[in-house]
Fold each of these.
Amino acid sequence: VRMLLHAAVSDVSDDVRRAAVMALGFVMCRHPKQVPKLVALLAESCHDHVRYGAAMAVGIACSGTGLASAVETLKQLATDSSDFVRQGALVSLALVLCQHNEVSTPGVTEARKLFEKSVSDKHEEVLTKFGAVIATGIIDSGGRNASVSLTSGSGHLRMSAVVGLAVFTEFWYWFPLVHFLGLALRPTAFLGLNRSLKMPIFDIKSNAKESMFAYPKNGPPEKVRDEKVSAVSLSTTTKIKARARKKRADKEEGKDGGKEAGKDGAEAGEGGASGAAMEVEDGESGKAEVEVEPAFTMMTNPCRVLAAQEEYIEMAERSRYTPIDANKKAGFVMLRDSAPGEPEEVVASSFVGIGPVGSGAAQGSAAAEEEEPGPPEPFEYTEPSGEDAASNPPTGEPAG
């Protein structure tokens, strides 16, 4: 860390300074809470390449954590004067807030609106728009069922994820390298398997509210209604209309003067009935009960379990299956069956065949049901003679 900080502030090359700050994110990936404080001064540097590296370092180390300090740092960098610093801030903001909703991490909706605004703004720089497009894909990566993680559930480094994320950061030089981010994605699911490697159907209890780890709301942006502008009228026109309204009011008062006395008695009688009606309505409104969200959630194997949700996961009471490793709460979980002799209900698996180009779904399913061809019959290979070799040259070589 000391070597990287020294290179970040003293090297003469912009590329070296940027890479040194970004490398802090990889080095500190197991201690994400310390990274926002570590790069706080670098994020305020007068050198734009250093600020970009600070944004990417926060995104790499704090990916999927939703840390409030990381989000605050990145939101400040998202308003930077440099276009590529804003690009890095938007990409890192998506990495940090991936699979988080407004209940667990306030500010997710605001970040999504920021991405949409950057993409649709005609006056935004191209580099910033490119970062916003990538961020929109990252925050919903894997159908919102995967998250970027450099470590496994046991805390070990995933080398494929480290390599993928390292190559992903090189989109600075060549944008197709963005696709290497897929190597760093880790599915967030619970898949319980029995001794036959099949998924039995059983209940899993999550001791947290359903809204805490629900799918984040995603949909088209809200349409802003155009406010109607009142028409401008001349002062003389306004005075004429006011005089006309006054004349109509005077005439109506003269006609309705005799009728008001008769209406007073009727209104007095209706007042009691209306007061009783108000009391009834108030009584009915007081009976309305507010639905209280349960403090736990029941799920069925297989199910979606986030990294932050693992501490709340446990097997349902009187469950037939228990995990062999009690500390494993996500991924592929091998189960111990307490009633191996009884029949069990498993998740039905289906295989979809891939037929030839242009074939329909029926041809694909029929191809899957066909048996694989057997091995060829035994045969003896003989070298071709000179005449046969000249008349039948090997494929890819010219004759003669």
Amino acid sequence: SLLFSFFFFSFSFLFFCLALIRLDTVILHIAYLHFLDHYCEKSEARMAGQSARRAVVITPDHFSFNAETAADNAFMSATLEQEELKLKVMAEHRNLIDALTHAGVELVVVKGEGLSPDECFPNNWFSTHSVSDPFQSVLYPMATPSRRREVECERVRTVLSEEYPNMHDMSAMCDADGDFVLEGTGSLVLDRVHKKAYCGLSVRATDRALDEFCTKLGYEKIDCIAKDGKGTVIYHTNVWLSIGSNYVVVCEDAVVKDEKGKRFLASLHESGKTIIPISHKQVLAFCGNILELENEKGEKVLAMSEKARRGFSSEQMEELEKCVDRIVSADFDSIETHGGGGVRCCLAELF
């Protein structure tokens, strides 16, 4: 009887231990699957795609008319006193954040640090890229001294160092004679899927800096000269060209039709995307300064200003609506007029 009890309790304890081991194995397996699912989802989001699921916005707490950048930016003019201007731009920027958040787009909102009057245009000084690219983030050499300080933004630099540690710092290569300048995705409009870098050369985008980007990131260089209706070289490419997953909005009339210009336009037409031509007048309405993002449901969300929405014809809007799932717009008149940049300029994608 005593011996039976000993064996009974021994075997019971053994089975109990085996059951615990099996339970631990199941729990570990479930945890592993959960980790794998999370990792794959995050990796998938970071793989090459045209639209990002997140973007950085920097609030325009210290916004003002920048006479230095106005020298070659024909979109800029000063019409409001500083106090009134600040109230308007803060409200416009807040409305854009609210509209995109309501559409399900994730935004990393950074408070302006006063590094530059134009710091609400962060896409000019940094870009991020997919895990399949040689570098996952790039810092850019800015044309004007007042804007070069923007790369010191502590909060954004923290995000970049934590999530995109493999960085190529072109900002440190900026030279005194202005021969090495490239203002991020203001100068560059990227077809990220096909690895093509479209760029209108200007004092904000020099050939030498464009070569550096394309060589280091493995992009095909496709450049041209683009001019406005008065024959002046347009300072940034992203005011007359936008590339989405299924559309290309482009001012073909702006492109100088030399060999490079012809190749530039031919490449866009060979993309298989819907081509939506815009006029010089529509460029001034910021119809080219639009950006496709992706929300939490995977829907394509197209961001633009109210001025741009009004600037598109009804037929053009119908074409855009076929190419994306949602179109979001916000009144951006004061920022566009006094800053010379629009909605796209205020959104720096996080891939």
Amino acid sequence: SDAWFEAKPMVLLIGQYSVGKTSFINYLLGRGFAGSRVGPEMTTDRFVAVMYGDAEKTTPGNALTSQPDTPFHSLKKYGTNFLNRLEAAALPSPILKRVTLVDSPGVLSGEKQRDRGYDYNGVVTWFAQHSDRILLLFDAYKLDLSDEFKDVMKLIQAYDKKVRVVLNKADGVSPQDLMRVYGALMWNVGGVIPSAEVPRVYIGSFWDRPWQNTGMLDLMEAEENDLIEDLVTMPQNNVMNKINEIARRARVVEAHTHLLAHLRAKVVAKWYGKREEQARLCTPEGLLAAYEQVQREHDLSRGDFPLPSRMASVLRAYDFTDFYKPSVERSKKLKALRELTECDIPELITRLHSVQKRRQASKASIVEGFRPLRNVRPPPPDHLFEKKLERQAGVAQPSVLRAMRASPWAQPSSHISSPAAALRRGELSAAEAAPEAAPEAAPEAA
């Protein structure tokens, strides 16, 4: 729909209760939003879409889904009980000009999770499908996963490319314990979401409170900067994701059309025994044979066909002779679909790449404008961001090196003070270290 194309990138936050989802949003906004409440107990019992607005206001779920120009229009199918627990909070905030944040109820355990009064798993699946980023939040003090939370994590397994893991409240443990917590987290997540690629994990403490343990402060500040950069640069990636979704749907529609035509032809070709033939095709084995034949005839990919077991259960409710029969009009539509995937989409990608190259130069300034405003914590040290720019440019800047040497988190040890050792650490260039490093480096080389 037009609303889907025009919508800002959506970020879905999922986690058990009291892991800091609402505090995370408040920290990014630099303030609270309408209806937000923070506490150690379960404080969020509804889905809240936090979006940009010139004036602060709240829109209930029934009114929100009645507007066809919003991406939430199709949520009406989940019923009144859910719509009473859905709302949108609009407020003027810089980061909301680029993304929409969705706060979700904390996942409970036992009967409380199952007795919500609406299809919670279906709603989470809808948001996961329509979101551009899914943030799984974990508390450094509570890494145990309830069975209900494992079920929710399995729901988003099909969208694992969108998933990022946030280990929150990490400053509450010592650096040594933090390494153990990180290992336990990866073990738990890997056991639920098996994937060849490890999801990106952001370690930090995302609220404006004084730091508790500063041993890993340098790491957490850098991780926070990476997370902010990932969020604010999503609009550029969002366009590519939508083009990718259009291409995927076009391939699926083409495969689906050829498959239904093949199934209809198989049944119509029978003079008698049409029901028996349809029953044979409505089995996983019969559909697999049909997939292979259609794939060979039309040069399609096996991955564009649905799961045979699920497709067989759906097809049993239909009469194959009622399917759309081949015609000149259908051939024209299939030809237009091929032109879309082979000509139009590659041209769109080429245009998008040229636009992204022009915007790449202003990427650093974009991130700078969306860092959280801190009232309690001190601002992050400048050398972290200079160091990041230095890595991206591939050039060592003397001013950056001086700032790193002067930083309280990067002071050299007393037994490593020679220019040769500084050269090994990368604090001096070869030209700066050459006059003094050569005599000391010779015995080591020998």
Amino acid sequence: AIYLACMRGARSMATQASKRVRATDTPCIVQMQQMLRGREGVLSLAQGIVHWPPPEAALAAGVAAMGERSTSLYGPDDGLPELRAALKEKLRVENGIDGGEVMVTAGANQAYTNVVLSLLDAGDAAALFRPYYFNHLMALQMTGSQLDLWLPPSLPDLQPDIGALRAELEARARGDRPPLRMLTLVNPGNPTGVMIPRGTLDEASRLCASHGVWLVVDNTYEHFEYAGEAPHECVSGEHVINVFSFSKAFGMMGWRVGYVSFPAALAPEMLKVQDTIAICPSIASQKVALGALAAGRGWVSQRVAGLAEQKALVLAALAPLGDGAVQGGSGAIYLVA
């Protein structure tokens, strides 16, 4: 009887997950994968990935890493020194970000989660422009910020509504609602496929700085810029955090390497989160990332240029929807219909 009672208790306990996680959305990509499991002749458009593998130099570095003793050991929490040095140089030369710290993570999603845990307390107000990247919302939900999420719509052209941001910050400054703690932008957008121009980024940064708001910019698709469209640019500052990824540009989705650039004053707190979640990024994956950096931006640009033809084919197929029915395409690998 005691055993049966304990078993009934265990079953009931299994349904008592935290309220935060139960209130978190189910990831749409996982839902689609489960729906399509075992089915044939169905193509999922739920997840954006590239068709090319990593550079040969990157894969060769991975093969070599398998025989190196250091690959099987713990590494520095924030990443291999040689990779972090190479990333700082890349950030300086390609992104105009000079100074601050860099942390290597298990993909951009972990980088963003590290940032949320480091910056926000449960109940702190955070903002995402709709349509947003679903994992950003999930990270905010499961850490307690779902209690005060501001989710304004983007403008009709899918750009962030800076006017709405200004009005919201001013209203909160008057005491109408608690202050906003963090704004997240994705540039270029996922799922919008829209590149945010420099002027918009600068104005968002200025507003955030003047109201004491952290600005987090996810630059996962930074390399996906197209001829005739605005180039990808970054903003930086003591209130700005930039997230990056190796996944899409270098075809390294399964290697799980991202990184985050942030003000040096945050380093002690970011290291607490990193040590608790991952301890350190995969050593083998970091060595592959070094090989990818050696191949460089030019290697990626050649492949991204080839996507223009694919984009034109998709736009032609969607043309019957009518003028203005399809948006996006100025950046990343997405269209919105």
